[in-house]
Inverse folding.
């Protein structure tokens, strides 16, 4: 008998996660040949020495034994109450206890929510550029992501005219990412109100990914979309996502929460689906839920710890100052999260696409980034940089980018020695 061979199931054929794609494969090859790789491809604060508040680490250590058993499949009740309190502090509409779901990271909740909300034939408005998990989660349900423009010329704000041109009777929902990954944009109260009117007029579900809500710079303010939408149309349904990975600097703990607002009285099927998927995965990681309780106790003000914020402010300034010196590159200064999404004027360089550029960056300098095309950008002219490394390392990164962009051919550019990562 012939040995069974495994192919890719057809339901996965359309699904991609290029953040861990071709450029990463090249980085792995370079690492195998001895190159020291700087991981600027994911927003993972841990390797750069960021830690959650001390109270979170202490509570996690203390909860090791208390976390041995499964919890209720929806999560620990104390955590659900803490999430309720956080929403109240943010001025969000009141959320009933059973409209809060805890997950093993926001990623799991995004997958679950999309499975329960969408079917083949549905269309979902997704920002371009997006965080590609959204695209993947929607495609896995058989629904179709339809990209709307976040306009670089307008500081990456969502374009309402583009949204209006893309909505039709198959459109079921819109995804917002605010503060935004990869662009660093933070949406104003006015912009969100316009989006809320659009949601209400078109009877859409809103999915608001707010995982960077506490990472804000200059005068940027975060407005929960659930709150804004509630003011425009209290019945409109909003699913909001937040968690420990970014605001809590504990991405490896895998803990997130999803809250449902609006009138769900006729959405029993959707809620039954969520309860079933919650039960099928048994429960969220119990130890991480104890960490999340401690995090929500310490971050009641909604602000990051001063030292963490100061560090991010300095690193953002170092990266932006460095990027300003580079020819053939322009960018919008980020107002939130920890990414910059510069445009590279590729026509003036030796590179055909952003992916070619990212591959060369990893080959010559060991700097691992993600090309804009991996975020379903409308063009292939961007690269996402992460400003989690210390300032001296970011300055070296900028000098390396400069040498690569000022070299007129794709021959090997000589790397200088880099400061260490932590
Ligand atoms: C916009 C956005 N949403 C969701 C996630 C996934 O979050 P989690 O670590 O909670 O699964 C990320 C991770 O980078 C993200 O950037």
């Amino acid at each position: 008998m012939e040995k069974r061979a495994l192919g890719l199931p057809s339901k996965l054929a359309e699904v991609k996660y290029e953040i861990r794609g071709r450029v990463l494969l090249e980085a792995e090859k370079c690492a195998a040949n001895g190159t020291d790789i700087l991981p600027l491809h994911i927003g993972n604060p841990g390797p750069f020495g960021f830690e959650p508040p001390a109270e979170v680490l202490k509570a996690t250590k203390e909860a090791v034994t208390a976390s041995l058993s499964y919890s209720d499949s929806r999560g620990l009740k104390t955590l659900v109450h803490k999430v309720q309190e956080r929403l109240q502090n943010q001025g969000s509409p009141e959320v009933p206890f059973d409209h809060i779901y805890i997950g093993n990271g926001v990623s799991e909740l995004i997958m679950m929510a999309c499975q329960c909300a969408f079917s083949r034939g549905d269309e979902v408005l997704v920002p371009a550029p997006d965080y590609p998990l959204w695209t993947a989660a929607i495609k896995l349900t058989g629904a179709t992501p339809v990209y709307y423009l976040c306009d670089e010329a307008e500081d990456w704000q969502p374009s309402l005219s583009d949204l209006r041109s893309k909505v039709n009777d198959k459109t079921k929902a819109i995804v917002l990412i605010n503060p935004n990954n990869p662009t660093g944009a933070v949406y104003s109260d006015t912009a969100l109100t316009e989006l809320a009117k659009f949601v209400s007029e078109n009877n859409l579900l809103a999915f608001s990914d707010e995982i960077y809500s506490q990472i804000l710079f200059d005068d940027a303010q975060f407005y929960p979309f659930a709150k804004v939408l509630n003011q425009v149309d209290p019945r409109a349904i909003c699913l909001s996502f937040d968690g420990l990975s970014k605001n809590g600097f504990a991405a490896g703990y895998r803990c997130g929460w999803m809250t449902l607002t609006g009138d769900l009285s006729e959405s029993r099927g959707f809620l039954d689906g969520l309860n079933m998927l919650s039960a099928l995965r048994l429960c969220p990681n119990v130890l991480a839920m104890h960490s999340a309780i401690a995090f929500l106790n310490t971050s009641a003000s909604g602000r990051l710890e001063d030292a963490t914020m100061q560090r991010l402010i300095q690193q953002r300034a170092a990266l932006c100052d460095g990027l300003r010196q580079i020819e053939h590159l322009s960018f919008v200064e980020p107002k939130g999260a920890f990414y910059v999404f510069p445009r590279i004027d590729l026509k003036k360089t030796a590179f055909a696409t952003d992916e070619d550029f990212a591959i060369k960056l990893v080959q010559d300098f060991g700097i691992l980034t993600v090309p804009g095309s991996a975020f379903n950008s409308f063009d292939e002219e961007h690269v996402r940089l992460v400003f989690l490394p210390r300032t001296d390392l970011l300055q070296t990164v900028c000098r390396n980018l400069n040498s690569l962009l000022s070299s007129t051919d794709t021959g090997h550019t000589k790397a200088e020695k880099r400061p260490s990562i932590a």
